[in-house]
């Protein structure tokens, strides 16, 4: 699914119109696609009813066409026109048996209340992508009245926003207080960027993109490099699992994690890598943690590292290097700590003198970034997380030292450390800055937070359409890093590993919250335990 600004969407539609797909035909396609969503949701409904709020813009036209199609399919369809003249679309609706709700009577809202109360579906086509906030008083009052009607009902209809909820700015993500909350937003052709920003996202409900018949070869469409992750995309990225597989088929994830203060990080990351499908996971931890951890993840193999008071010591890099030959991906950072000895260890690993910096070949896995001989390969494909990022920022010219492309998984605070920007500056332009630095550094960036952004050095950006406090808990980042390295170990390229891992992680957070009935009590282990359900639903 493409993610676009309002201006970009207008340019796409203009090019389509010039190419022969007229604006009227696009609207016709949009309306029928919208009707298709409704019909799919109410297949077995007896005597279904729909009421549509129809504004003067294009999404009002989409709504009228959908209402007409529903009337033709046997639905009781009513339309309430708001600042819209009785045009050809209105005539087609009434000719199909649709009913117009009177708008000139003093008791209009009394009638609306009864119609909404009996409806199974309410289509919100009042305001579209072209609105400007603040709303004019008459429209604000109308939306407020609709909200009052809905709030006062024991059982309200399913509210479907047409292209966007009325009252939302589709570029900035701002939303009027009177915005009508949707259960589902059916958006046309592409996701408008404001829908994946707060506070607008709180009004969107489930987001669905429908086809309006755009040709695939439109230059303005091809030039859009920002996508929204969704289940079909993720399913296509996941590696095949043939029947004649063995553990070597799915690679080895080597994970350097944990310290006396953050013992559990290694277990969370290690199990997540296994849940992502890695054939073997080796946990490289301070040796004194082994007895506490070994019973928690019996499937793992171990690299026991020298330590100083529970933190990895500088000479541990030699021990770790012996594991590189069999590793197909390396994660370093979760729970590592930032002690001086660990800092020296980390720098020894990252700046290995004999590294063939752009090698990505490991035990039968040829990554697309480079096809160097195995004998020259030193560091496996890298994922750097958490304390690893803090330590990375202390290395001069680190972005040229890392084998490219590494995957970096900062939250805004860690991204601030890497870039020198303030967290506020980062949060103001998450997509733009993630993309900018991915290109400058030559590495994949996973900028965590609400609507996690995954950016590639080649300009591609994917946004994860999830914002949930279920993931605002210690340890969930370790689970994300483990998922990504588990996918990378199986041979996915850096960007695809990051996109798939971030999407699975976000969905697992939603699943865990749903299972518990609250986001408050979700722990990282709950997110971890929900990964199999997410993957099962993809199959």
For this entry, give a set of tags.
single chain; 539 residues; alpha/beta; 7-stranded parallel sheet; 20 helices; 16% strand
Number of strands: 23
Molecular shape: elongated
Order of strands, main sheet, comes to 10-23-22-21-20-19-16-11-12-13
Distance between the termini: 20 Å
Q: Taking all residues together, what is the mean pLDDT?
A: 93
Number of helices: 20
Low-confidence stretches: 353-377
Helix content: 25-40%
Class based on secondary structure composition and strand pairing:
alpha/beta
Radius of gyration, CA atoms, in whole angstroms: 26 Å
Strand content: 15-25%
Largest sheet: 10 strands, mixed
What are the SSEs and their pairings?
Elements: E1 3-4, H1 6-18, H2 23-41, E2 49-54, H3 58-72, E3 76-81, H4 88-95, E4 99-100, H5 108-118, E5 121-125, H6 137-151, E6 158-162, E7 184-188, E8 191-192, E9 206-210, H7 219-222, E10 226-228, H8 231-237, E11 252-256, H9 265-275, E12 280-286, H10 290-293, E13 301-305, E14 307-308, E15 311-312, H11 316-321, E16 329-332, H12 340-350, E17 361-362, E18 365-366, E19 382-385, H13 387-392, H14 398-401, E20 407-409, H15 412-419, H16 423-428, H17 430-441, E21 444-447, E22 453-455, E23 461-463, H18 476-489, H19 494-516, H20 524-538
Helix pairs in contact: 2-3, 3-4, 9-18, 9-20, 18-19, 18-20, 19-20
